[in-house]
Amino acid sequence: MQNQQLIDHLFRHQYGKMVSILIRIFGLKHIELIEDAVQDTFAKATVQWRKKVPDNAEAWFTTAAKNRVIDLLRKLDADKSRIEKLNYSASAIAFNNLFEKEEIQDSELRMIFTACHPKLDPKDQIAFALKTIGGFSSSEIATALLLKPETVKKRLTRAKQTILKRKLNFELPAKKQLQSRLHNVLEVVYLIFNEGFHSNHNKLLVRKELCGEALRLTKLILRKEQFRCGASYALFSLLCLNSSRLGAKVDENFNSIDLKNQDRSKWYLPLINLGVNALEKANEYPDFSTYHIEAAIVTEHIKAPTFEATNWKQILELYKQLEQHQENTIVSLSIAVVFIQLNEPQNAYLILQKLEPNALEQRSYLFYGVKAKYYHCVGNIDKAISYLNTAIESVPNFAEKTYLIKKRDALLTV
């Protein structure tokens, strides 16, 4: 069992690296063949490692994948001359270098920018990124994105067809395209993290592997000087600060714990420090992003020794800034919550009256939950219970549903 867990762990962490390196060697036109080759290597490891895992499992996998490259090259008639060059010429040096740490990172970055290429449909980008960079299976992507498996397969197929049809290059963007291409990449990484932090999975409230993958990708981006800017550091800060609270978000039975009742001693200090330092670094750059504001909001929560000591006025100002840059229903809903915390329910009501729960799609239960909070605040318990019932009916996640049921049951005894 432990060996299988190690293989699964390696698969998650090595898949993207191997696919990226092989695409750099063979080209994007062979992407399906390459994915099959990497799968073969892991299948081989699963059989060979049943009794004993090699001392350096990662090195074993790298060597096996490298040998698989040679096998593939030999099978491709068109590349016969190429393999000879790789084996006996100066190209062999370059080939071997592709498996060194710096070159692996470079290949992964090329893969990230390819997966988030503006010529790909935005709906396809995140699914394709999760598959090629994160090593997620189609069923895992379907679960993570609340899609049917058939929809995921269509999106992955469409992304690959677009790559071939538009003849996309496996390269880092040119300087003049850097800003807009980086914006796309950061947005996809942000979405991956959010799916982990507020999972739509019907059983899991938190998907730590998604959060971890988003953090890893952001660190990878920051390793290259040309990708360092205020936005990339601010996103890293936001992900670190939010990740620091993951251990306190659920109890031992995976039940949801809201911010008010979280044990703040469980917030992970090294990640908090990383996040705070990254935000300071972000502020040294001239560009500004919504990630700066979101990280500042989380910082306010982390600075407060208790929930009651939270500086809600400062958080309100930050949310208003965020609304100016990014007006959407989630931000408006958050402002309504802050008004309730400030004991200004009338202002919360004015906002809630303007919002459409359908705009939140699968997360419409959040709207009904805030409505319930508002009615509880003004003392209308019946209406609060009614809205909690609506929230319970619409929430897809079991842990969230259990949390809302507890809230509703507590009001029934008032």
Automatic annotation (TrEMBL):
Domain DUF6596: 181-282
UniProt protein name: Putative RNA polymerase, sigma-24 subunit, ECF subfamily
Bilayer-spanning residue ranges: none
RNA polymerase sigma-70 region domain boundaries: 10-76
Cross-referenced SUPFAM superfamilies: Sigma2 domain of RNA polymerase sigma factors, Sigma3 and sigma4 domains of RNA polymerase sigma factors, TPR-like
Molecular function terms, GO-annotated: DNA binding; sigma factor activity
Domain RNA polymerase sigma factor 70 region 4 type, first and last residues per copy: 111-162
Pfam families, per the entry: DUF6596, Sigma70_r2, Sigma70_r4_2
One of the GO biological process terms: DNA-templated transcription initiation
InterPro entries reported for this sequence: DUF6596, RNA_pol_sigma-70_dom, RNA_pol_sigma70_r2, RNA_pol_sigma70_r4_t2, RNA_pol_sigma_r2, RNA_pol_sigma_r3/r4-like, TPR-like_helical_dom_sf, WH-like_DNA-bd_sf
